[in-house]
Each structure stands twice: as C-alpha cells, then as structure tokens.
Amino acid sequence: MTSETGSKPAESKPKETVRVSCQNCLRETNHDVLAEFANKNYLEEPDITFFNVYQVVRCRGCERVSFRYANWSDNEQDEYGDPVVLVDLYPYRLAGTKMMDGLRNLPDDVRRVY
Ligand SMILES: [Zn+2]
Question: Is the pTM for the entire model greater than 0.70?
C-alpha cells in the first residue's frame, strides 16, 4: 500500500470529444471520450511507426456508447502531409446487428466501462 491520495481513474481526466456518426441520431454528433488507450508499434526494417488509438465514446445527443478504433502510420500521408487515419466504429454503422459480437472481442479493461 502506497500513499496515493487523489489519484483517480479515467474520469478525472479533462473531457475530450470526437466527431462520430451516431447510429441512433443518424448523423455525425459530438461524442465524449469515456476511456482511451493508445499505443504504437515500431517496425525497424521498413522504418515505419504504427499508431493505434482505442476509445470508448458516448454520443452527447442520445448517450449511446460506441467503440472507436483509429490507426495510422507515419508511412502513409495525404497530399498535405497529414497522416491518413483509418477509423473503425463498433457497432458497425448501417449494420447494427454486430454489437454483441464486437463486445466479446474487446479487452477486459474496455468491457468494464460498459
Ligand atoms: Zn446519438
């Protein structure tokens, strides 16, 4: 036991928001980021760094919770020199039947937030 006073889990972090299309609102809305995990992988041979961001997000309109996965590498850039970011959303937009399948594959830490 150490004297860790005042250290709170994720909720004490400053709130971050992302624009995500909401299945319920049927349009792009602001989502609060409830939890976030980021990492990166470095490949020495081609000298590429891959970035991964995993987020649990909640719609500010209807409070529906989704899972957002964004990934990019410093190898792929658009014509402005910005990284090309690929974003996956769970449950899949326009499908809507995959939610439980997606949840089962989430890491334990993320699932606890639900
Ligand atoms: Zn919504």
Answer: no
